[in-house]
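STRUCTURE:
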C-alpha cells in the first residue's frame, strides 16, 4: 500500500528538487537558478498558510525509503483558482495541477497516480468542479486513465518581456 501525506512547510526544498527534476525530464535541460530559492520560499509560505490564501495550494507526497538523507519519492502539487461562477461551475473554483514528479529511483511504483489521486480528492473537498493540467507525452496515458480529456485549445501569451511582475 502506498502512503501519501499532505506536504508541510519543511518539505519545500524537496518539492523544489522534484520540480527541477520534472523540468529536466520535460526538456532535457537542467536549469538551476534563483527561481529555486523563490519557489522554495513561496512553497514554504503557502504550505504554512501565510500567503493570505490558506487552502489554495495543495501538495501531496510520498516519502522516500532509500538510503541517504530524508527525501521525497514523489509529489503532486496544484492550486485552487477562483473565477466568476458559471452555470457548470457555480462555486467558480477550478484546480490546476502544475507539478507531478517521481524521483527516477521510485518510478513504476504507482506514486504519481497515488499523489495525484490525493490531490484530486483535496480539490473536490475545496469545491473545485474542474481540474486542468498540461501533460507530458510520458504522463498523458496516466492522466487519461484517471479521466482527464481534452477540454479546449489553450492559448498562452508570455508577458515576461513586458516588465517584472509585481507579485500581486
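SEQUENCE:
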Amino acid at each position: 500500500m502506498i502512503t501519501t501525506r499532505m506536504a508541510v512547510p519543511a518539505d519545500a526544498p524537496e518539492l523544489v528538487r522534484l520540480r527541477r527534476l520534472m523540468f529536466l525530464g520535460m526538456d532535457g535541460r537542467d536549469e538551476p537558478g534563483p527561481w529555486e530559492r523563490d519557489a522554495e520560499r513561496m512553497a514554504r509560505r503557502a504550505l504554512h498558510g501565510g500567503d493570505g490564501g490558506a487552502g489554495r495550494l495543495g501538495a501531496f507526497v510520498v516519502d522516500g525509503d532509500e538510503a541517504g538523507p530524508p527525501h521525497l519519492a514523489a509529489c503532486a502539487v496544484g492550486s485552487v483558482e477562483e473565477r466568476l461562477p458559471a452555470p457548470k461551475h457555480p462555486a467558480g473554483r477550478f484546480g490546476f495541477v502544475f507539478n507531478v514528479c517521481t524521483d527516477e529511483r521510485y518510478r513504476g511504483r504507482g506514486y504519481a497516480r497515488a499523489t495525484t489521486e490525493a490531490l484530486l480528492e483535496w480539490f473536490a473537498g475545496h469545491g473545485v468542479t474542474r481540474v486542468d493540467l498540461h501533460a507530458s507525452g510520458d504522463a498523458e496515458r496516466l492522466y487519461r486513465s484517471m479521466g482527464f480529456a481534452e477540454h479546449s485549445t489553450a492559448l498562452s501569451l508570455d508577458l515576461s518581456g513586458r516588465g517584472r511582475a509585481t507579485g500581486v
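REMARK: The two ends are 41 Å apart (CA to CA).
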